[in-house]
């Protein structure tokens, strides 16, 4: 009995490959019939149109051989899957399932499958559908700008060649580079970066070959103004801009802009103005707070449009972004008033005197804390540089800009988790309460103040305030002044609620808070400078004296007070602010108005 079971299992295992081959052969015959192919074509068309396939027709498909009977007894209905008893052993001449004859039958079956009409049909279908599957996606990301037509570049090269041919010895000197820049369709104040990139700084001039070699290399990789100016300013192989890269560029603006001709007689003040402009550029453009401007940051900023505006506007003070000389004068004088020892740095004690001790000591401590807004070197030394003071003053006097909102958020985020917790808000508000109590002002408990701040900001989560919440609420300046600037907080409390409605009726755009502050401070500085000059000059015969306007005692008090203010705001007389090889700056003399 044991031998019979063994024989039965061997027989069934030997029949399985043969059965599979027979089933494949029968399926191939069925698939090759005309009726089957016609039904398959109709079903494929239904599938292509998105319609449902009728399965009732498929159920009627039956294999029919030439005689109408099944071709193999293995497919008869009711036949068992395995024989009831083990068959006699096969003769020696019969091939085994592992003989080479099986491979030949498989090869014949595969050849018949490949030559069948169904295989040809499916192959034609794949070939007909293959072009539709190849979808051409045009490029949509151009890190160096969208390429311009080659004809346009050739026109620029031809125009530049004609310009050099018209120059003596085909050389362009520094004062002639504005014509070359205009021939390249670039703003004329690109002339110094173009001159330096072509090698003109080494020999003093640029030839046609030198310039065209540089220009072809530039337009080959850079296709828009942002990428080209970035490549002209950056050091070779450098992927970012540092403050030193802007020095020659801004110096050329100082030397040639008609609105700065009065500075030609005072070259010792050039570096002061240049450092202020560069500090403002990095404050507005460098949004990563790492002191390195990347190409995407330059492309997203308005620096290119402001530079193009320089050749259209002769009054430098009308260019309020970056280049206004009045803004520079205000920033410089404010820094000079705080820098009592005139070492070009201010510490916590100096900064606390800003605006008559308006800022709380806790926010000043946070400004000088690691990881807030100052560089690691400044934090380590406990001193703020001039460029960092520019960022501080812009942020303090205009808390509505995205840069200033980020500036004060970094200062208030004590644990650096990216949120302002209720504990941090209470920490800064405690000093405000102490100040108001010392001044005899009625205080508001923190719980009530917190409710007002949350209603003001409307954060997504009631237990924390994010930077996104402050930027979206449009009232971040009130939020910040409430927590660490008592003077401005009291101004907000006493302001006219209908003032905003009256300002909205004006068609002209309202100046920013920084522009208002700079204009007011500049007028005060000019008035003080005029009073100082009036005291130094002798009275002219045309001067009229009105002795009855002031009482003697009032006039003496006013004179002493004015002298004290002039003494505090008087610029230096013996120091110069000059750049050296290390990138540092030094003071010299006073700033001309």
Automatic annotation (TrEMBL):
The keyword Nuclease does not apply. Keywords: Calcium, Metal-binding. Residues 525-537 have a biased composition (Low complexity). The keyword Metal-binding applies. GO terms for cellular component: protein phosphatase type 2A complex. Residues 56-111, 525-556, 569-593 are annotated as: Disordered. Residues 572-583 have a biased composition (Polar residues). Residues 400-435 form the EF-hand domain. InterPro entries: EF-hand-dom_pair, EF-hand_13, EF_Hand_1_Ca_BS, EF_hand_dom, P2R3A_B_D_EF-hand. It holds the Pfam family P2R3B_EF-hand. Residues 540-556 have a biased composition (Acidic residues). Residues 81-98 have a biased composition (Pro residues). GO terms for molecular function: calcium ion binding; protein phosphatase regulator activity. The B regulatory subunit might modulate substrate selectivity and catalytic activity, and might also direct the localization of the catalytic enzyme to a particular subcellular compartment. This is EF-hand domain-containing protein.
